Amino acid sequence: MSGPHVIRGSVSLPEAELMWRFSRSSGPGGQHVNTSDSQAEVRFDLARTQALPEVWKERALQRLAGRLNDGVITVRASEHRSQWRNREAAAVRLAALLAEATAPPPKSRRPTRIPRGVNERRLREKKHRSETKRGRSARGWV
User: Fold this and answer.
1) Residues 76/39, Cβ–Cβ less than 8 Å
2) Which residues of the chain are under the pLDDT cut of 70?
3) What is the Cα 9 distance to its own chain's centre?
4) What are the counts of helices (DSSP H) followed by strands (DSSP E) for the chain?
5) In terms of DSSP H, where are the helices of the chain?
6) How many angstroms separate the Cα of 81 from the Cα of each of 6, 21, 88, 93?
């Protein structure tokens, strides 16, 4: 691997907690793909990890509940010919997924009121436009 994959801030994916599995890829590679295990699958035990702060872990477990299998998240990569590049892609994808899942919820929107002057100006312009269009009709000419 080319160094630690940072989730956010100083928190990164611990290499010791990543479980790798390689298999034959159905992706690119031509004839060579039949003999090499180029597809990379990384598994990360989110429920038992000590690398994430507790708040982040709870948030991630809640947000990724549909993707978890016994608290373990699995990411697969097979778009490259080499096992090493697929391994990199899977780790980067896992880090991005965890970064998104552990992000704090967005600030709630504080409702604002439209100023009265803005509303009055809009209604005044609407009335003026209505008068202009009414003046174009031939209704009062007879």
Assistant:
1) yes
2) 1-3, 25-35, 140-142
3) 17
4) 3, 5
5) 54-63, 83-102, 116-136
6) 25, 16, 12, 17
- Token pair of 14 as six digits: 């611990």
Residue 109 CA to residue 17 CA, distance in Å, equals 38
Here the tokens at position 73 are 């998240």
Dig out the tokens for 12 from the structure.
């990164």
Return the closest-CA partner of residue 92 out of 77, 112, 73, 109: 77
Residue indicated by tokens 């780790």? 91
pLDDT of residue 26: 67
How far is Cα 120 from Cα 113, in angstroms, rounded to an integer?
14
Structure tokens at 2: 């080319």
Most distant CA pair in the chain, distance: 92
| Exposed / middle / buried, residue 36 (Cβ in 10 Å: 0-12, 13-18, 19+) | middle
- pTM exceeds 0.70: no
Through-space distance between the first and last CA atoms of the chain, rounded to whole angstroms? 88
